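User: Here's a chain of 192 residues. Predict its fold as tokens.
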Amino acid sequence: RCSGITSITIPNGVMSIDASAFKGCRSLTSVIIPNGITSIGYSAFEDCSSLTSIIIPNSVTSIEHRAFAGCTGLENITVENENTKYHSNGNCLIETESKILISGCKKSIVPLDNSVTSIGDYAFYNYNNLSITIPNCVTSIGDRAFYAINSGYQRITYCGTKEQWNAIHKGLVWCTSYNVQCKDGNISHIVA
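Assistant: Prediction complete.
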């Protein structure tokens, strides 16, 4: 349905992007979301693997799970400064009040300023060979947050101890293969 489409400008007057609206549009490299859009639905841009950047306008007050899951070409995530619900920091999309990191990208740096306490479901879904640092203020990691379909090896630096790492609530299949480097040693799980 979207084969060959590389760029989309959503018209003014549109209020929401429906669930799965652009899911699997693998050739899509850019999308312009106008101010006036209030919601981005479940899996709206999932698996848009060529999408390189996304700008969330001030008007957006609802972003559902998996909206940008599997957007493995994503390099920049920006939220306009006057958005009261979300913000971006370190190329991470963060729900401000709940401190949930909703979506990251291959150039994400998880903020170390206590603005993130949870990494949401599918936040880094299907990023193979990711290298990322997680602050010790994180208390939960959601379902498939670091899951890689091709069993990519995730290198995680954790700013706490192994005991603190083990105390983090981790969702269903939160990751496939990983090496977590803690202050006092490593924790590894390799899927052959």
